[in-house]
Amino acid sequence: MATTAELFEEPFVADEYIERLVWRTPGGGSRGGSEAFDPKRLLEEFVNHIQELQIMDERIQRKVEKLEQQCQKEAKEFARKVQELQKSNQVAFQHFQELDEHISYVATKVCHLGDQLEGVNTPRQRAVEAQKLMKYFNEFLDGELKSDVFTNSEKIKEAADIIQKLHLIAQELPFDRFSEVKSKIASKYHDLECQLIQEFTSAQRRGEISRMREVAAVLLHFKGYSHCVDVYIKQCQEGAYLRNDIFEDAAILCQRVNKQVGDIFSNPETVLAKLIQNVFEIKLQSFVKDQLEECRRSDAEQYLKNLYDLYTRTTNLSSKLMEFNLGTDKQTFLSKLIKSIFISYLENYIEVETGYLKSRSAMILQRYYDSKNHQKRSIGTGGIQDLKERIRQRTNLPLGPSIDTHGETFLSQEVVVNLLQETKQAFERCHRLSDPSDLPRNAFRIFTILVEFLCIEHIDYALETGLAGIPSSDSRNANLYFLDVVHQANTIFHLFDKQFNDHLMPLISSSPKLSECLQKKKEIIEQMEMKLDTGIDRTLNCMIGQMKHILAAEQKKTDFKPEDENNVLIQYTNACVKVCAYVRKQVEKIKNSMDGKNVDTVLMELGVRFHRLIYEHLQQYSYSCMGGMLAICDVAEYRKCAKDFKIPLVLQLFDTLHALCNLLVVAPDNLKQVCSGEQLANLDKTILHSFVQLRADYRSARLARHFS
C-alpha cells in the first residue's frame, strides 16, 4: 500500500500513473533493460494493484463518513449556542428599553424642576437688577456718582450697559419732575458714547481687532453706533490712495476691509456696503468730475475717451466688488452707485458722440481732398439729378461735360481706415455707455453717419467723379481710370461690410433696428452697383471705341487684296497686332480690378463686344485668295487673344468666326461641304452668304452657281 501511495503525484495524470506502475514492475518494460517483456507478470501486477486500490478506497470512504458525522454533530452544537445567544440578546434588549424609559422619566423631572427654579430665579434676578438700577438712579438724583463702575475707567463696558438702561428708563419719566436727572443721565450717556468712540478710534489706530470688536459690541445699542461705523470708514481710507490709479486703490481697500470687517462688527455686510458707497459718492465722483468737466466743452474727443475709460474702469471695479457680501441685491446697489456718478454725462452722451463723429469725419475727408488740391464739386440732388440718373441708366450717355481726373480715383484706403476706426471706437463707446433700451437706436445713428461720410461723401462722390471722367466712346487715346475706381471701391466696401457685421450687428441683432439697417445697407449697395455697372459699361464702350480707332488707322484695304498675291510676307496684319496687344492689356486690368464672378461677367461682355467689332470690321473688305488667308491668320490671332478671357462663350464665338473666314479661301466646289460642317451648320444662311459675298471672285458665274 505504501508503494501504491508513492505512485500518486500532484497533479494526478492517469496515463503517467500507469506508466510509472509499468516501469516499477520487473519485465514490464518494452525496450531496453536486463529483463524481457513479460505480459503475465504485468497482468498479475495490475490485478494486485487494483485490489490495493480498492482497499485504499474503502479505507478513505470510512474516513470521509466519520468526518461527515463529526461535522454534523458540531453544526448542531453551533446552532444550539446561537439560539442561546439570541435569547440572551432579547433579555438584554428588554433591560435596555426599561433603562431608557427610566432615564426619560428622570430627565423630564429634571427639566420640570429646572423650569420651576428658573421661574423663581428670573424674577429674583430682575428684582436684583432693578434694585441696582434704582441705586444708580438715586446717585444721579443726589448729583454725586459714588459707584466704582462710574469712577473706574476700566469698567467702562459695565458703565455703558447701566447708563444705556437708565437712559431708556429716563425717557419714560415725566419731564417736569425729573428734568434735572434726565439731563444728567443724558449727559453721562453722551460722555460714555464719546469715550467709547474714542476708545474704538484708538484701538483701530493700534490695530487691536479684539478691542475694536468689544467696543463695537457695546456701542451697538447706542445711538452713536453709526458714528462709530463712520469713524471706522474714515480711518480705513487714510493713506489708502497713494497710487496714481484710484480704481486699483479702491479695489485693494475694499479687499482689505472685507477680510477685517467680519471680525469687528456684527453686521459686516452693512458696514462694507457703507464703505463702498462712501468711496463711490465722494472719492470716485470727485475724481470723475475733475477728469470730465475740464474737457467737456473744449475737447469733445478727449471728453469721450475719458468718459469711456472712466466708465469702463468703474464698471470693472463694480465687477470686482460683486465678489463681496453686500446684502441681498448687490447688483442693484452697485448699479445705482455707478448711475449716480455718470447720469449727468450719459444723458446727452449720444449727442456729443454724433456731433464729434460728424465733425471728425468731415475733417478727415476735407484733409484728404486738400492734400490732392481738389475742390470738391457739388453733386446735385433732387428731381433734376434723379432725371439725369434715369436717362444715363437707360441711354448710357454721358450727361454734362467730361472731367479730366488725371488718373486720380479720389478714393483713399487711408481715409477709409480712419473713418472706420473712428466709427469702430464710436460703436464701442455706444455699447458701453448707452442704456440697453437706447442702444439699438444710438447704434443706428452712428451707422447713418458712417453711411453719409464713407458711402455717400467719399465712395459715391468718387463714383460720380469717375463717371464724369469717362471719355466718350469716340475719343482717341483715352485713358480709362474707372476700373481703378471699381477696384478701390470694391476693396473699401468689403471693409465697410466687415465693420457692419463685426461691430454694428451685435448691437442691433435683437431689435427692430436690424431690418432698418439691413434695408439701408441694401439701398446703398444697389445704388453703388448701379453706378459701377454704368461706369463699367461706358468703359467697355470706350475700349471698343479705342479698338475701332486702331483698326481704322492701321487696317488698309490692300491688306486683304494685295496687288502682288505672290509676295505677301506677313503672318497677320499690323492692325491685328495692335488690337490684340490692347485687348490683352485691358483683360489684365479687368482681372486686377475685380474679383469673383464679376470678372467673368465683365470679360464675357467685353468678349462679346470684341467679337461683334471684329465681325463687323471684316464685313467691310473684299478678299482675294491670299487676303482671305491673311484674314484667317488675323482671326486666329484674335482667337488666341480670346483664350485669355477664359470664357467658353467668347472662345466659341471666335471659333465660329474663324470657320466663317474659311469661306473666303475654300475652293468653290467645296463651299457647300464647308457650310454644312459642324461649326457652320447651325448658322443662318444669310450670314454664310454675307461672308461668301466678300470674296473677290464672288461674281464669277462658277462661284455663284456653286453657292446658289
Q: What's the short version?
A:
Residues 50-88 form a coiled coil. This protein is mainly α.
Task: Give the helix tally.
Answer: 25
Sequence stretches where pLDDT stays below 50 over 5 or more residues: 381-387, 396-401
Q: What structural category do the secondary elements indicate?
A: mainly alpha
What general form does the structure show? flat
Helix content: over 70%
Radius of gyration: 56 Å
Features:
708 residues; Methane Monooxygenase Hydroxylase, Chain G, domain 1; 25 helices; 75% helix; exocytosis; Exocyst complex component 5; Sec10-like; Sec10_HB
Describe it.
The chain has 708 residues and is an all-alpha fold. Among the domains are: 87 residues; 173 residues; 145 residues, Methane Monooxygenase Hydroxylase, Chain G, domain 1. Helix content is 75%, strand content 0%. The chain is built from 25 helices and no strands. Helix 9 packs parallel to helix 11 and helix 18 runs parallel beside helix 20.
Could you outline the blueprint of secondary structure elements for this entry?
Layout: H1 2-6, H2 14-24, H3 39-142, H4 148-151, H5 156-172, H6 175-206, H7 209-219, H8 225-236, H9 246-261, H10 268-293, H11 300-321, H12 330-346, H13 349-371, H14 383-395, H15 413-433, H16 439-468, H17 482-508, H18 513-554, H19 574-593, H20 597-618, H21 625-643, H22 648-661, H23 671-675, H24 685-692, H25 701-707
